[in-house]
Amino acid sequence: MSETDQQAEPIRLGWEEWLGLPNLGLPTLRAKVDTGARTSALHAFDIEAFGSSRAPKVRFGVHPIPGRDDISITCSAPVVDRREVTSSNGEIEMRYVIETMVDVGDGQSWPIEVTLTDRATMASRMLLGRQALRDDVVVQPTERFLRPERKFDVYTTRKIKQVAPRRALRIAVLSREANNYSTKRLVHEGEERGHSVEIIDTTRCYMAINALAPEVHYDGKRLPRYDAVIPRIGASITPYGTAIVRQFETLGTYCLNSSAGISASRDKLHAHQVLAGQKVGMPTTAFAASPKDTSNLIGLVGSAPLIVKLLESTQGKGVVLAETKKAAESVIDAFRGLKANFLVQQFVKEAAGEDIRCFVIAGKVVASMKRTSDGDDFRSNLHRGGSAVATRISPAERRVAVKAAKAFGLGVAGVDLLRSEDGPKVLEVNSSPGLEGIEKASKKNLAGKLFDHIEEQVRPAPSRRKKKPA
Asked: What's the pTM?
């Protein structure tokens, strides 16, 4: 047979076939081929539109294996139409229409339009209508499974990750500062990748807490299901903000940083205890509640100069350098008079007003910068007039930064280090690190790297839950 004859060979389909929808992350489906039906239909549940009116998208779940509702794949696709479809029982339903590739095996695939509807009561997860059949397709209504066989085990093993496509995600950024550089960068980068990114003011969220249907509400409406949440919780609302993140965790939403990690990193005393427990190097630190312990407290840290730091301090505020023991006692007495919680810390003189910010994503340092204080100020925070330049870090500094972020279980973290005579010491682990300073210093697209990590975490993979007993 000549090559021309082989190319002219028709594609033969039975009335039931194996096929795949690779663009949706569905490599294996059993479909009914019905030339009496005009429109193709895919079983879908939790169908939810998102995105802008100019480029609408739809997000939905699919149970790819008949009878296995404990296994579901989350899919998304651009909406090409909404139209009325009359089902086989005569009911008229308004359905979303998407376009995707159908793969029938042996290298044969082509684009088709598919409507989304609940086919839970149907034996086949998909119906392939006549509009989806090319001219070279021949349907043999008395035959089944003429195409190469496919296995459902792709959904019950890690193989699905290898074939899963990148899909449009619906992402929430928890932030009270819509015009903040970091927030705007996250929105811009996400939308450039085709995702829908929504800014949610954390303080305007409220929760329905119950065992059966926990929810997050916002401005009088229940928030939709998000693929991922990026928490950027301000220090002043940490308790409430982490409660909202916990609620999303309860819903099964992927949160870039966990509520527990944010809480622990924000409480400086707790944070130092976590770091000490993981044997991460840091300046010697002491804490006491009683005013009788002031001298002993200073003695535990060493001689002056030393640092007195409020537990709730951020961006260098509430951090005082005491040059002498008498000055330290005065600062401590003042803080105690205000009933403020604080700790006393060794001053690393050799750092000379410089620190290193390491930006850690998914257990890797992806950028680093050296921050230098302004004038005689010992604090190098950019918010206090400090300057920053990109810098190379040593293998030891890299290991310490990664270990510190891992100690809190943070997907993204800004780890601040001091270069001391006896190695790197961690000053702080920031669970909402700013992007502006380090992106400009490093000339790297860190928002893009962050989305790379999110996409990897929420690629179409089967979500599993226990099957209900029969």
From this structure: 0.79
